[in-house]
User: Fold this.
Amino acid sequence: MVLKKKKEIQVDAFFLDHHQLEKLQRFSKAEEQNLASLLVHCAELRNGIQQIQCIKQMMPLVKQMDQNSAGDPMVKACLDVLGEMYFSLGAKNPLKKVLASSLNGLPGYLMVPAVQSFVCCLQEELKTTDVYLYRKVLDNLASCLEDFSLGRACIKNLFEEVLQFLQKLLLDIQEENRKNHGNRIVQTQLMHDLLIAIKVSMMLIQKLQENIQGSLWKHSESFVWQSMCSLLKSCTNFLMDATLLQTVQTTSGLAVILFTRAMYEPVEELPSLISGLLLGTVEHSGVPAWFVRNCGVLCTAELPGPGLLFLCHGALAMLDWKNGSMGENGEKLLLDIASVLLSLSSELKESSVATSLSRILVIWTNSALAALVSGSPDIKIKLNGNSDIIGKLLEYIYTHWDHPLDAIRHQTKLIFKNLLQIHQTTIAGSNGKSDPFFARLIKHLLSLDWHVKGKYASLGSLVECVGTESILQLDRTIPVQILDVMSDQSLAPYASDLLETMFTNHKARFTSSFQEGTWIDQWHNIWVSPLLVILCEGNHDQTTYIIDYYLPKLLKCNPDSLSYMIRILQASADANLGSCSTRGALGALMACLRTARAHGHLELSNIMSSGLVSTECIKQGLVHQHSQVCIDALGLLCETHRTTEIVSLEEMQLIQFFMMYNLNNQSPSVRQQIVSLLRKLFCRIQESSQVLYKLEQNKTKQELVEKSTKMPPLRILQQYKDFMSSVCARLFEVLFPGSSHPTRFCALSILESIAEIFSVPKGQAQVFQLDQEMDSARVQTLIQCFASTFEEVKILAFRLLMKLRDVALNLQGSENLDLLFQAAIDLSTSTKPYDCVTASYLLNFLVYHKELQHICLGKWLEHNSQLDENTSVSTVEKNTLAVIKLLLVNVEEEIFQAKKSLLQAAASFPMYGRVHCITGALQQLPFNNLTLVSEWKEIVTRLILMSYSLSAVVSPVVQSSSPEGLIPMDSDPESADRLQMILHEIQPQDTNDYFMQAKILKEHCKEESENLADQRPTKNTCLEMRGKDRQVCDVTAQMVLVCCWRSMKEVSLLLGTLCKLLPSQTTSEPSEGLITVEQVKNIGDYFKHHLLQSRHRGAFELAYAGFVQLTEMLSRCNSENLHKMPEHWLSCVLKEIKSCDPSSTLCATRRSAGIPFYIQALLASEPKKGKADLLKMAMKELISLAAPLNESLSVIPQVHALNILRALYRDTRLGENIMPYVADGIKASILGFMSPVWAVRNSSTLLFSALITRIFGVKRGKDENSKKNRMTGSEFFSRFPSLYPFLLKQLEVVTSTLNSETEELKIHPSLFLLLLILGRLYPSPMDGSHSALSIAPFVPFIIRCGHSPVYRCREMSGRALVPFLVATEVPHMALALLRGLPDSAAPGMRQNSVHGTLLQVFHLLQSYLESNQFVSLDFQQGLRDIITCVEAKLWLAKRLPLRTGRLQYF
Assistant:
């Protein structure tokens, strides 16, 4: 509802130099305006928008000139200046486009002198030799070629010079890229320049083909031919260079085909040449020598996958597939491209390449459609739905329609849609509805489970081809089935899109076939009646998603259905009020009305005045026991189609009624919805009030408003003001001390919305202002919210006070200000962790007070009078600097005391609170606009040194091999003596010497005891102490540990914040930066040290948070030294992991402690659009360590590698970049499970669990066997083809260890993992004969696993067998398994084998019956045979022998 403000366009103005101005002023006339004076005036303007308006006045002046003015020196001078101006403007400057548009209107007689002027300017541009200035020339060339007739004429005159320039430019960039290998910043810039250069070269050939037509230039001696050969050779090299950006390779593929097409003769043989290149069948003897010289690398037998892919893209995009211009060779090439692309789909698994492949397949289908229009009968047969090519494309669709990448899913949908059109084109003239291909597709798609997302889009495309009725004839319950699916949010959007396609198509058929009104009842029965039943009785999630996704689309399709819904629901609303779990008819009515009003299908005033819905009915909804009904009733009042609709008095009264009962809702989602809806209401009040103010000034329109609202605008505005005042009063009323968190959250969030919405620029009439409602009591109420234990409440209160800070600070007297500041300082050293958060927000609020230094800080710090004299320094900067100095002085003193006694520090003055306040103060400072740079540099240096000192004090605890224990808890001398003995015993096993401090502790406590013995009895000495002395001796292990790890946390976050100051230095002199490069390097070394050595999870997790801030800054940094630091750190840590050095301090227990976090931070900060070189390097090393070929190596590197891999596979920031390594991870985890070392097996188990989640998704239900976390066998092996031979081999090894002839319990370690993976697969009716990987070899091994003596293995083998059989083979396999059971008791019969076989038969039949397969005559016959066979084996059920107390399962 809230209208977005239009973004202001920024236009950089141009300037003319002294020489240009002098030239124009020579011809300008003061008494009349001519072209020269207009340009002078334009140059004097300093606003780009005004210059645009001025340039637009140029053409009318030019058109007033006569033809004789072509030789006028004034015109020549103006054209020269315009040319220089055009080529000096940036490519994205709107002035350049406006100038080009104006010059396109030049009269013909001025074109010659204009071209001459522009040619001179372009010649100067082409003389550029600096590689880093090439981009400007390229941008100018591209601008000239794009819709600029003068520019094209200019390039046409300089065609050879431009070709020569581009030829040299490509070679220069290639050489510069080679010189800067490893410098990613420079290389990225060069790659983008190279991309533009290739595009400009292509534009030059495409748009100026008349320059290279004919046969003259095709002589090998001609300059143009040699330049073209050079361009072709360079683009071929770029195409095959895997180190370049993928976009460069893709564009090079386009360029290679384009240049070859322009140069190759005869053109009719070009498709054959490209087919040979793609299939690897080119013979040098049949190819022109010039092609072999320049593109010889393409003529090799095997091209790399990406190069082949981009060559296919070039052929599809650059050749003309329409009108059959390429003949039979073109048709053959089209089919060859399809086969190559489909073969590449099983090889190229990197996410970016896989996305490109799916996009290229879409282009192929579009090209096929174009070729079919005028193609031969043969191509129509080969592209028919029953052809092999289409079958393989369908196989690709079935394995990619649920791909994790959204782009691939979208492209797959387009491929399927185009395939249907291709088939329709091949059968043009016949009835598509009865076509067997469509019928087969519909049957297969309907037999799929509804959890398959690809099913919805595919069915939607089929509906567009065959109509909704064809689908409903097979199953009338499909609408209900789809609505049932909508309880799952991940499926709801897909389901609603399919339903929309179906009911829209259905309505269109009805309206075209029947008379108006005769079909609506039937349509309602199919699409509306099931909806109303679910809205009344459905569960919460299902009804919510149906209202959000389905209902608006249904009302948009047929708004008249609303009256039908209201009539049905109103009839039962009184009887069916709903409950806490169901909406009932009342809730359904509220939902329908809310949706209809929000989308403009009804006016609330109309239905209330007509009696359709009463005020009492809405009140019932506002206080309904089902929270979503309350929200829908509130939405009915707040949401409207027009944001300026006037809020009626009844609506305001109902809102006040709602707020009386619903501000303390316990559900976070409901609270968020309440705030969101009320925000929409306030926006309506604000925007409608502006309309009313304008109408008040317009008496004519005012009368119209009075007629419609029966009330003058001023009275409505007064109602608005009274309503908002009462709302604010109610909200402040519920913010009393001790109010619940939900109430405070709602009240503060709503108040923040009010403050934000009703803050309008001065001078504009405002119906309400929150700051006018504020008084000292209300400000105090907001400040008291800082004391809440919920940080969410603190944040909301702080943001609201910031919006009202002028009035809030003015209401603070000096005495109250002093008390607040003293409270903040005291809280910053509290032992309660949430107190320091309160202190931070309080200080961040107080620093905006102008008198803070005089009132509060004067008694703490020495006053600096120079700061007062410097009026350019902002209040916030001065106060923040003073507060940080105060906190820093205090924390430095406390660190000094903590070095003497960490126990005393933990009990009396934990230092983390001060550091937290410093970090909070720094985060709200505008570092790009600081005045006191020298003072801040000094503070930053002190903060870094303080951080190191604090870390040195607390790090021995968190780096201990057992940080959670072995901390002195007893303070009496006897306990200290015992502890001293224990610590001496463990000392050799632990590298840190912190526990030697126990001696000091003992002596300290002994002195305390001796001093107190003179005053009190020695009994219960520690309990009788007072003040700090008591805290020193009464400290617990938990207090010490909390103090230490929280201190490490705050130090890490502070250092991470300080690292962000570095970018301010990159654009200025080094002396002006707040932090130096050397300091950043030292901070990086600090993080490295603590992440790799901390044992306490809280410490290294939060050190990781600070380290991430550092690595993200380094990845964006322009300094080459800093930019390469992550790569250096990664190499060093991988080398240390690999070295197995006994002296290494890396933690091999605790899942490698902070090592995975350290490597995660380094890899996740890599630029997302880069080549992910660090990830590739790390994964290569880690996988080689996780699955070592040499078993004699130390297991510690293997454990580290497995733990790090687990963290990387779980990291969502790595996204699809990690997927190519999933198969190797599975191999490493399965092989590691067979290790004799427990640590390796444990880490392998954790890695395997992470990989299962990464492959099959996060488990979202309690059902272990839910198909939501599974995939089809063909999809699994298509995405991870290397797992096919590995799993098959491992399964063969596993089954060879199963001895079913004896009762020996011998289980292979990896049996469970293999069955767990295979059991996660399921069969798909879409599985066909086009899959490259046959899954039949798995079947005998899985059957053999069913003979295991372990029950769990037999059960899992039964599930694992299912996905490896096509549905039509299930009856045959079930019968074969049953026939394998013994007919009578035999000496060699094993009950485990019988039981395993029966389980396999059970799961096969269950899966078949659940798969929605249509029962065929073959299955009925197979079922009869199965029943007959089961009857023959019933004797097994009558025999349950017991042996040694163990039940033998059958």
